[in-house]
Write a structure and sequence with these properties.
Layout (H helix, E strand, L loop, with lengths): L12 E6 L3 H12 L3 E7 L2 H11 L3 E4 L8 H7 L6 E5 L4 H10 L3 E4 L4 H12 L10 H5 L10 H5 L2 H11 L4 H8 L3 H15 L4 H11 L4
Parallel strand pairs: 1-2, 1-3, 3-4, 4-5
Amino acid sequence: MAERRAAPVGPPLRVVIVDDHAVVRSGLRAELEQRRCEVVAEAGDVAAALAAVERTRPDVLLLDVRIPGGGGPAVLTSLATPVPTLAVSASDERADVVATVTAGATGYLLKTSPVDELIDAVRATAAGQPVFSPELAGHLLDLDLADHVEDEGWQRLTGREREVLRLLARGRAYREIAEDLVVAVKTVETHVRNILHKLQVTNRHEAARWAMEHGFDA
């Protein structure tokens, strides 16, 4: 009988934690390091966060929204090179969510989220997949951005491509989208390639963020 070989295991995800409460940082570090994540730096304000990210170039930035020095969005807009970022905040206020996503966050979880959900979100963020707490859906997909309704990118999309884009913006995986629309996964992949081309973005994460920023939920 042939010997079964274990599946290869990749290197731990390298994470920077930014939160102005040391006890929160300590708790996140403990949970992450039990699940094959390496916390390469911590920071408690905007300046320290920027220095930590530029020094370590992490796979994922865990970012609180309300931190001294200008807030989480200030970190994102000041980075020389974008980093996959998961906002983890106690705030579910619309202004905080929209400002953080618009600044470049990949996803946004509330601090009340279960630990396993947080760990899954960190891994999804590293892969460029947006993840958001369900409670925030209204903030992200019901924005009053009527001035952008005639956006040329949106107008170029077919009806089915718009459906796929809305589901991407809700953090759905390709297989889930295929099940919702009763089509093959390969069909969803084709729609996504067309969406990327028409919106002139490079990956599904950028397409999903484009949809959320423009408020296209219909």
